[in-house]
Amino acid sequence: xxxxxxxxxxxxxxxxxxxxxxxxxxxxxxxxxxxxxxxxxxxxxxxxxxxxxxxxxxxxxxxxxxxxxxxxxxxxxxxxxxxxxxxxxxxxxxxxxxxxxxxxxxxxxxxxxxxxxxxxxxxxxxxxxxxxxxxxxxxxxxxxxxxxxxxxxxxxxxxxxxxxxxxx
Length: 168
Description:
The protein is an alpha+beta fold. It has a domain at about 40-135: CATH 2.40.50. About 40% of the residues lie in helices and about 25% in strands. A 6-stranded antiparallel sheet has the order 3-2-1-4-5-6. β2 (about 65-70) and β3 (about 80) form a beta hairpin. α1 runs antiparallel to α3. The longest helix has about 40 residues, at about 125-165. The chain is elongated, with a radius of gyration of 24 Å. The chain starts with 13 loop residues before the first helix and ends with a helix.
């Protein structure tokens, strides 16, 4: 028995192109909007928080730091974004005793910590955090543009197939 005909390449139908167009537009839009939460801001636009450290926990995934969470007195837990988090920073923060006063600069849209100061020492620097977040955002923008281009390709092929079907 010859099963080769079952695995022969078939051309995608109009429904496949239509679905590809919808998925590409949807995901492309999401990926293009993602960097907006961490858009570059000035120091004056950042939220300034002062409090005493209650808890610090580092979240690891596959052996790497995923995020660092800081809970200050009478405040919600704040997080260091994964592109800004490092093992060195996590170790330094874990070594700080509870009830130590900290100053944080937090992004107002994403609520990511951009700067950490303890006793005048800067543990996470504002401009470095901004640079790391901007570099990370570039990848999402490129992915979003690629998905929109895929949606346009699928849309054009969908229209061509529909015209061919209409003319028959």
